[in-house]
């Protein structure tokens, strides 16, 4: 029997773009949380592990921003495939999904312009572009939450209808 390499699961996760992004995101947010706590509790004269963790978080966040430069075509393909959601049975779900796709589609170029302005590739006010991209990202998150709540509502309705049918 062959021995199973100890890190096989982690290696398989890191071999995919989505898996690598999830690992980077988890470490990034973990460092940000721990770093923020340590900086807030730091006593004068103590070494700043917290600041180091915040620096790691910022670098990983920048890494994710650069990697997202290549997400446009995948997002465009997804949006085109979904189209106007004609296969969607629920009208509210259709419109939530369409608006979510529009927000996501607009997010990427705004973030790219902000990144390019920060990198001094173009001359633009990056803070305005970062604000716009963050607003679109937040809007996309809210639409995703609304979609999830709508799915829960539809599932509860279906469950209630099925349980009523069984009781008769």
From TrEMBL:
This is Peroxisomal membrane protein 11C isoform X2. GO terms for biological process: peroxisome fission. It comes from Pantherophis guttatus. The keyword Membrane applies. GO terms for cellular component: peroxisomal membrane. InterPro entries: PEX11 (IPR008733), PEX11C_met (IPR026510). The lineage of its organism: Eukaryota, Metazoa, Chordata, Craniata, Vertebrata. The gene is PEX11G. It is found in: Peroxisome membrane. Keywords: Membrane, Peroxisome. The keyword GTP-binding does not apply.
